[in-house]
Specification:
The protein is α+β, with helices and mostly antiparallel strands and 1218 residues long. The chain is built from 38 helices and 45 strands. Keywords: Repeat, WD repeat.
Length: 1218
């Protein structure tokens, strides 16, 4: 067994980290990235030893990963957070991602295409992250059990291996478990795939510290375990050539270097303290390692020749270099020194065979065998005999050679490879190909790559010798075979197959490079630009300086042509909005080192369209670097920084851009300056938009983020400190209309406010309780708890602002604020983004229907809080959703709206589609009539918004006065007399108004009406009498010119038809009610139920003057434009603007022109309607000549005796009522 080489002294050491270095990875440009428990990531230049310190982690860095395109670095820490950095610059690309809260990151790995990052924690959860958005991919995380130590993608990305107590193999696309097997006796600590993906190697824990090899086709173990470690294997890495593996054991204090071919330890790198990681340099000539010693150590990989056949010979280097004369001379010297040196004779036979001196080669082989029969002697004889064409004798020599292999599988396999090549060179192509195929098929426990490479090389040589048409195809096949190891790594193929170079003089490297060159040209012609560039750089990375010099002319031509094509096609893709393709094409051009500022600008534009903000920033900065005098780079930088929400930097870039435009020598460029708004102008526009938005918002608002109560100034200041404000200041658009709309949208969204509707209880929180205090920090009792819960619900719903009536109004010391708040409250609720209704009397266990019995439905203020908002959500006592209804608007819930309809008696459609204003005033009063308020004046104040009225708030005035002022305003503005239709006690404010709102509880008396046919019949009858027609026209004209009802100084001026009462007498009937029989001129006798008349005699004549009046209703005129005369037509947006009050000076005569026939018809229809029963008032004349209404306990229904007696209807007057 080979004795390992102990290595104790590194070539170099790097210092910088303050604590244990836990992970590292190398880059092709001689850089190294490391992560440490000191919470930093460092990017090292291995030539200078200088490191860039990258800080963002809040816990010690535990793992690192680098994407294959080297553009991304991911670092994970002990807090379970992942941070992403730019692979070239080290710039931060993301804020810490809470990948595994509470569990440290035990492993990271990028998918081969770089689109996914796999992370796992010690607690058995593996997650997959989108590397564009840094959000978790859809689907459940992979649960693998505690102790997940390692996660690794296969080279093709087909599999994801996860190491725990078992080894689990997943399909990362579907997350389906492909295979699961027990790898080691206890846990599996580390994983590494061979570059061709045919093997998975696993490292075990302390109970089984071995390396095991698994066939990825069957998931069965291959061969015996690799032994040598005595404690757990923390990490394994494979060198670029795929021939060596380094394994790390912290407890042992060293790194082991294994040879893949025979699974033997060939070197041990000793450390002063336990290493945690190791990695190979890209050329495979060095190992870098580190760990608890806080240092990075660089070690030289020893030159270990793995040749069981040729060993170490003096002429080996000369053979490799093709200097056969020197090789012959050196070997002859060895023979002259020792004539019995059978090895030197065999080696000289190889040299003679390469020189095609076959006779000499045969003689040297025979001499070697005669001195001492050996494996190398019979191989040399077989090759020499093949060269002479003695195939049978050659086969015999190779057969005898197999007797000297000690039955070592590797030696036997290599012998058969040499035999196949020798036979091929002797023209036995079919036999050689068959032998190679049989070797590959019959040896499942060894790597098939050598056979594929040999077969492919021989195929190329055959096509070349025959000048075959399939040479290019054969060359591609050879490239594929060689690159199956690692297509992107630098490696010297001569080092892998030196024995073949020594024996046969194969120039594998030259062929590999030549085929790459031709393949690059072919890909370019096929317009597969990205693949051509990728292959080009693979070729360049694998070439030394001499080789690159040989290909310099071709390289320059290729780069120039490929760059031009990539740029031209990138421009086409960008114009066609094919942004991914444009980015790829521009990237290919840039990779060829021939890009201008225009190319970087165009790639930045494409990345902006894909919202790749940070990447776009880097390209834009490159533009400014290449062309610092141009505004374009700063314009792109501004847009990208804006998208990345780096607003301060965006403003700075924008300011520089404006200065560049101002200073541009070209007039056309300077004219572009006019298209942009400077930040100060944007601030003014934003300020105006904010004040417009806040006009219809409460004066004080609770900031749900800070928990502070804010006045207008504080609200504005909060906005200025927000990312939304910064986003607007830097909004990149030339369109002023678009900017204005954007400002409106952002401001409206930011200031969305959520209002609370609730029933006041004891210990409600007031303004002074929370002034200058953080709501969330107060003792959560009573009203404070309610407020805190409300704010949290609002905050969790994504809103910044909340309002609660108990504590957001200064009710004590600021009368103006109180008055403005009450008059604006309906508007606030109407404009709220959401109104939350808190039902403190509905427990969480409530059943459907519970809402009907809630006291919230009975309160005065909650009426407008129900009908005003567009969006309402009901919460129960424990702040859970009522009925568990998670719909965004409970006004759209049929079940909840049915309960509200039952509770309020208001049709659900009316509740949803409620419009404030005068329309349907009597019905609105009826809806409010059963509601109660704690303060008696509030029954009126709570209705101001319902009717769109603004009035002074005078707490301390009588309830009748407050209600009277409201009703007076309704009549004054609208002329609507339906509000005078009530039953109950009269108000001290005015006798035509009720003392209590409950008087509206009874709906207006429903009077029978004539059908259209009956009206037409009576109109036809009346037309027969010309006198009646004339009187009807006179009546119509007088009524048309009659003004609407109005109030002045608490006195109602009521236009009406008056009927003089001629007799009032008591009427004794079976009812206990006091009834009076009333006679009036032109009316049928009627009964009036009232306690207001003080008449005790049935026959005593009436001394006081009474009138029965019919209040004039202009709708009887049957005018088509009647609705336009009322303010009921106000739109939702202007309902707060009152119409002009009607007056005697401005009669309400209809402006509609009517011909005689139409007017006559309207007059007769009016007469018919006036002849029907109507609701009447009983008025009593006072000493000053005014009247008072005599309130009745029932509706007074009157009817004219004869509708043809028009004269009885002509007593039309406006009566002043106290």
């Amino acid at each position: 067994m080979l004795k390992p080489i102990p290595i104790t002294t590194p070539l170099r050491e790097f210092n910088g980290h303050e604590q244990c270095i836990m992970a590292a990875a190398v880059f092709p440009d001689k850089r190294l990235v490391t992560g440490s428990h000191d919470k930093t990531v460092r990017l090292w230049d291995l030539e200078t030893g200088v490191a860039l310190k990258m800080e963002m982690h809040r816990g010690g860095v535990s793992r690192l990963a680098v994407s294959q395109d080297e553009q991304l670095i991911a670092s994970g820490d002990l807090n379970g957070e992942v941070v992403v950095w730019h692979g070239e610059t080290g710039e931060l690309l993301s804020q810490p991602i809470e990948a595994h809260p509470g569990g440290w990151i035990s492993s990271l790995d990028f998918s081969p295409d770089g689109t996914v990052l796999a992370t796992c924690s010690k607690y058995g959860i593996t997650k997959l992250w989108n590397t564009k958005t840094w959000t978790e991919l859809e689907g459940r995380p992979i649960k693998c059990g505690d102790g997940t130590c390692c996660v690794r993608y296969s080279p093709s990305g087909e599999f994801l291996a996860i190491a725990t107590s078992r080894i689990d193999i997943y399909n990362p696309g579907t997350r389906e478990l492909v295979a699961s097997f027990k790898g080691h006796k206890s846990h599996t600590f580390s994983l590494v795939w061979t570059a061709d993906g045919t093997r998975l190697l696993t490292g075990g824990a302390g109970g089984d510290p071995t390396i095991r090899e698994w066939d990825t086709a069957t998931w069965k173990q291959v061969g015996d375990p690799w032994t040598g470690h005595s404690n757990y294997i923390n990490l394994m890495v494979i060198n670029p050539a795929g021939t060596l593996i380094a394994s790390v054991s912290p407890q042992e204090g060293h790194v082991r270097l294994w040879r893949v071919s025979d699974r033997q330890t060939v070197a041990i790198f000793e450390h002063s303290l336990g290493p945690e990681w190791a990695t190979f340099s890209m050329d495979g000539k060095h190992i870098l390692s580190g760990g608890n010693d806080k240092m990075i150590s660089e070690w030289a990989v020893p030159n270990i020749i793995n040749s069981k056949i040729l060993g170490i010979m003096t002429a080996r280097i000369a053979c490799i270099d093709g200097d056969l004369s020197t090789a012959e001379e050196l070997l002859t010297q060895d023979i002259n020194i020792d004539e019995n040196n059978h090895t030197s004779y065999a080696h000289r036979s190889f040299v003679m065979a390469r020189k095609h001196n076959w006779d000499h080669a045969v003689q040297d082989a025979i001499t070697s065998i005669s001195i001492q029969p050996s494996l190398i002697g019979f191989i040399s004889k077989g090759i020499a005999l093949c060269g002479k064409g003695r195939i049978l004798d050659a086969r015999a020599a190779f057969d005898v050679a197999s007797m000297y292999t000690d039955q070592d599988p590797d030696t036997i396999h290599f012998l058969l490879l040499i035999k196949a090549i020798a036979l091929f060179n002797a023209g036995q192509h079919d036999e050689a190909s068959l032998l190679l195929k049989e070797l590959a098929a019959g040896c499942p426990n060894v790597y098939t790559r050598p056979y594929r490479i040999v077969e492919a090389y021989l195929h190329v040589q055959l096509e070349k010798a025959l000048d075959g048409a399939h040479y290019a195809e054969a060359a591609d096949h050879f490239i594929a075979a060689v690159n199956s190891n690692n297509s992107s790594s630098k490696f010297n193929i001569h080092e892998i197959y030196e024995d073949l170079v020594v024996i046969f003089g194969w120039d594998l490297k030259c062929l590999w490079l030549t085929t790459h060159q031709k393949r690059c040209d072919a890909l370019l012609q096929a317009r597969e630009f990205q693949d051509a560039v990728k292959l080009y750089w693979s070729m360049m990375d694998s070439s030394d300086e001499n080789t690159m010099a040989d290909y310099l002319d071709w390289s320059n031509v290729f780069k120039e042509e490929c760059s031009a094509l990539c740029i031209a096609n990138g421009d086409i893709a960008l114009a066609a909005s094919e942004y991914d393709r444009a980015i790829d094409l521009y990237s290919a051009a840039i990779a060829l080192d021939s890009a201008s500022d225009i190319v970087f600008a165009n790639r930045s534009k494409a990345k902006l369209e894909k919202m790749l903000w940070e990447e776009a920033v880097l390209d834009a900065q490159k533009v400014t670097e290449l062309n610092p005098s141009s505004h374009v780079g700063y314009q792109l930088t501004h847009t990208a920084l804006h998208g990345a929400k780096r607003y301060d930097e965006a403003i700075e870039a924008f300011t520089i851009m404006l200065s560049k435009l101002d200073d541009a020598p070209e007039v056309q460029i300077r004219s572009l300056r006019q298209q942009y708004v400077c930040p100060s102008q944007a601030e003014d526009a934003i300020r105006r938009a904010v004040w417009i938005e806040l006009e219809n918002a409460p004066l004080r608002l609770l900031n749900t983020s800070t928990g502070l109560l804010c006045d207008r100034a504080a609200q504005l200041n909060s906005f200025k400190m927000s990312s939304e404000y910064n986003e607007l200041i830097t909004f990149p658009t030339k369109d002023s209309n678009l900017r204005t709309q954007r400002i409106k949208d952002v401001v409206a969204t930011y200031f969305r406010c959520v209002l609370l509707s609730h029933r006041w209880e004891e210990a409600e929180v007031l303004l002074h309780d929370i002034q200058d205090k953080v709501v969330y920090e107060l003792d959560g009792l009573g009203g404070i708890a309610k407020l805190q819960s409300f704010c949290k619900v609002v905050r969790d719903a994504g809103y910044y602002w909340a309002w609660m009536d108990t504590c957001c109004i200064d009710k004590k010391s600021n009368i103006t604020e109180l008055q403005e708040s009450i008059n604006s409250m309906f508007v606030w609720y109407r404009n709220s983004a959401l109104t939350i209704v808190y039902l403190s009397d509905i427990p969480s266990s409530s059943q459907p229907g519970a809402l009907v019995g809630s006291a919230w439905n009975e309160r005065g203020w909650t009426f407008q809080e129900l009908v005003a908002p567009q969006v309402v959500i009901f919460y129960q006592k424990d702040w859970s959703l009522y009925l568990g209804d998670r719909s965004p608007n409970h006004k759209e819930s049929p079940a909840i709206m049915k309960e509200l309809e039952d509770a309020t008696g208001i049709d659900a459609r009316a509740l949803v589609n409620f419009s404030p204003g005068m329309r349907g005033a009597r019905e609105k009063l009826q809806w409010a009539s059963k509601r109660v308020t704690t303060l008696q004046e509030d029954i009126a104040y709570s209705l101001f918004g319902i009717f769109g009225i603004t009035l002074p708030v005078i707490y301390g005035e009588k309830k009748q006065n407050a209600l009277g002022r409201l009703l007076q305003e309704i009549v004054a503005r609208s002329g609507d007399i339906t509000v005078l239709d009530w039953i109950g006690q009269p108000s001290e404010f005015n006798s035509c108004l009720p003392a209590h709102i409950t008087s509206y509880t009874t709906p207006p008396c429903a009077l029978s009406s004539l059908s259209e046919d009956d009206i037409q019949t009576q109109v036809s009858s009346l037309r027969q009498n010309p006198t009646v027609v004339d009187s009807a026209l006179e009546l119509y004209d007088r009524l048309d010119y009659t003004s609407a009802a109005r109030f002045a100084n608490c006195r109602l001026h009521l236009p009406c038809m008056a009927f003089r009462v001629t007799e009032v007498s008591l009427n004794y009937g079976p009812s206990q009610e006091t009834q009076y029989k009333v006679k009036a001129d032109g009316l049928r006798d009627l009964l009036i139920t009232t306690k207001e008349l003080n008449i005790h005699s049935r026959t005593r004549p009436v001394k006081q003057t009474f009138l029965i009046v019919r209040p004039w209703d202009r709708s009887l005129l049957d005018l088509p434009d009647f609705a336009n005369l009322l303010d009921d037509t106000e739109s939702e947006g202007d309902y707060r603007t009152p119409p002009l009050s009607p007056s005697d000076d401005s009669p309400s005569h209809s402006p509609v022109k009517q011909d005689g026939v139409d007017l006559e018809l309207r007059a007769l229809r009016l007469l018919v309607r006036l002849g029907q029963p109507f609701g009447a008032f009983l008025l009593a004349r006072q000493r000053g000549g005014e009247y008072k209404r005599v309130a009745s306990d029932r509706d007074i229904i009157a009817q004219v005796k004869d509708m043809s007696s028009v004269q009885d209807l002509l007593d039309i007057k406006t009566i002043e009522i106290l």
